[in-house]
Structure of FAD synthase:
Amino acid sequence: MEVVYINNSKVLAECKPEPCVMAVGFFDGVHLGHKKIIEKAKEIAQVKKLTFAVMTFFPHPSQVIETDRKVISYLSPLPSKMEIFSQLGVEKLYIVKFDKNFSELSDQDFVNQYLKGLMCKHVVAGFDFTYGFKGKGNMEKLKNVGTGFFDVTTIPKIQYKQEKISSSMIRKLLESGLVSEIPHYLGDYYRVSCLVKSMERGDADNNFIFKAQIDQDYFLPKPGIYKIQIKFNETFYNGLCNITNKTLKPYLFDGVIDGLDRIAEKNNVQLRFIEQLLDQPVAAAYDLFSRTVI
Ligand SMILES: Cc1cc2nc3c(=O)[nH]c(=O)nc-3n(C[C@H](O)[C@H](O)[C@H](O)COP(=O)(O)O)c2cc1C
Ligand SMILES: Nc1ncnc2c1ncn2[C@@H]1O[C@H](COP(=O)(O)OP(=O)(O)OP(=O)(O)O)[C@@H](O)[C@H]1O
């Protein structure tokens, strides 16, 4: 996957565009609604024999625009989002810096400079996609202004239990500790990548006790005790993890892993949240862990 960072219209002019089918959106978490959009763009690109591209923005628009709900941590921080896009077969990823200047670009200028400028022949986005200053552009307008330049495909609302699947909904579930519900929205357990700081045999049952550091850009579940899996070298290990102080930066997890003797310190692992066991962290975590059957 080729990654192109666009910081302003000058850098945009230096891009070497190629005719493409483009999925557009912020796509935090790349949930089931987002996946439908990306899969549709891929399918159209194959049929039309064009490059399969995605355009996303960074940071989240709420960090630049006045809103009551600022998104400061992510379900998929940029490196994780890039990995997911690459796994979904995206050929070209445009990452547009969302700054004050960009936010004030009119909807017409965004279409002319960015979508037409990057040689989009087909744009795919969801039913509620908005763009341009004050979010004045929508899918209806996009179809009109694209006539003669690009086609537009709108993905209808993807729902679970009669509600729109959204990144905000997944954040709410994490804030409530309801991690076991998340696969219905994400298509998989909520996962974060982290760096193992220490791993030693520690408790009475000879389980491994680990401490791991997580990138501070990740949105974390409510403090508490969680059943987890650690993925390392394509193998999943069951365990428990204690999330304590959410304000601690960088975050440190500690926990117990069952029968794990291959992960050494300084390894990057993927941690998946399976189920909340206790809705508050415990001070003497190891005591609790050693008494709990993993
Ligand atoms: C050029 C441009 C300017 C934007 N300006 C604003 C803005 O002034 N106010 C706002 O609330 N959102 C603005 N947005 C954000 C969009 O409304 C929207 O959140 C963004 O395009 C991501 O779409 P998505 O949230 O559907 O993924 C702008 C987006 C673009 C592409
Ligand atoms: N459930 C859904 N069904 C269809 N399209 C969706 C769905 N959720 C998001 N989209 C589309 O995905 C793209 C990215 O949207 P966005 O990143 O705002 O997702 P979101 O889940 O709505 O986020 P948030 O909850 O933060 O508003 C947009 O084109 C949007 O219309």
Remarks:
- The longest strand covers residues 190-201.
